[in-house]
Amino acid sequence: MFSVKELVESSTTMSVPSNYVCHKTPEDSMLYYETENIPTIDFHQLTSSNPNERSKAIQQLGDACRDWGFFMVINHGVSETLREKVLREGQSFFDLSKEEKMEFAGEKILDPIRYGTSFNVMVDKALFWRDYLKCLVHPHFNAPSKPPALRETVEEYMRKGKEVVEELLKGISLSLGLEENYIHKRMNVELGCKVFVINYYPPCPKPELVMGLPAHTDHGLLTLLQQNQLGGLQIQHKGKWIPIDPLPNSLLINTGDHMEILTNGKYKSVVHRAVVNTKGTRISVGTAHGPNLDTIVDPAPELVGDDNPALYRSITYRDYILLQQNNELDTKTCLERIRI
């Protein structure tokens, strides 16, 4: 396997190899909104003992999930020190020698630890300008043994992130008119599958020719995301691409396909992509929080009725991940495959 990091470090030319040149679709060239105000959720208010404060935050959370599928969380309690450390240790992993990184290459989609490049080199028509490390971190924790501090850092980061996501899921349940532990119980979140991903996007001499990751949605209920100082995340909203410039010390959250399935389309998963730049390496750290792998996911009966029929057929979380990861990453095509 030849990583993008190796390619950049070994190349003295200003060209992009032809197998990385992406065919751009009309959707890729959509106009940009530069000044949209992304929804912001104050975690203090969401967990407040003041019923009015909490009720207002739950309303804002529901609106964000319905209208955007994306929001920023402030006052979340995950320290800046820890967030910077996980980015730094992520960089240290990619700085290991090729031989050391290949110890964690993995072979199968649901291997506990998997280092790789692009998305799925077996099906990608063009390779993406991205290397990655993926770890299944729940219900059983897995992380590389190198570099030495990575495992402990990821474990602490996951513990803090779990607290944030679990409160968000309670708020989302309430925003849907359900009891606050509804999603936890129905999706077996306590034994849920969490996939931790570090994405490494090196600088590119011709960023307009390549994609870090193309337009896609995430599997799972919610994805928690943070990035280093170099932006590159863009979300699709009302037919436009919106570059995300997060507030200082905020965490980014997007809704996944299984939130859309569970809510019968009321809260839709957001289409997003990653673009690269000429300036430097962008690192993002994402955690997909999903149901247990063997949980059958279908629309909640409480959100289905005569005037609102079920939109999606039942499928286990495991089968959905395998379906998505074994095919091209292409907007919402995986979700369309299970649409009734």
From TrEMBL:
It is found in: Cytoplasm; Nucleus. It comes from the Eukaryota. Residues 189-291 form the Fe2OG dioxygenase domain. InterPro entries: DIOX_N (IPR026992), IPNS-like_FE2OG_OXY (IPR044861), IPNS-like_sf (IPR027443), Oxoglu/Fe-dep_dioxygenase_dom (IPR005123), Plant_2OG-oxidoreductases (IPR050295). One of its GO terms (molecular function) is L-ascorbic acid binding. One of its GO terms (cellular component) is cytoplasm. PROSITE patterns: FE2OG_OXY (PS51471). Keywords: Cytoplasm, Iron, Metal-binding, Nucleus, Oxidoreductase, Vitamin C. Pfam families: 2OG-FeII_Oxy (PF03171), DIOX_N (PF14226). Involved in the regulation of shoot development and salicylic acid (SA) homeostasis. PANTHER family: OXOGLUTARATE/IRON-DEPENDENT DIOXYGENASE. Belongs to the iron/ascorbate-dependent oxidoreductase family. This is Fe2OG dioxygenase domain-containing protein. It comes from Phaseolus vulgaris.
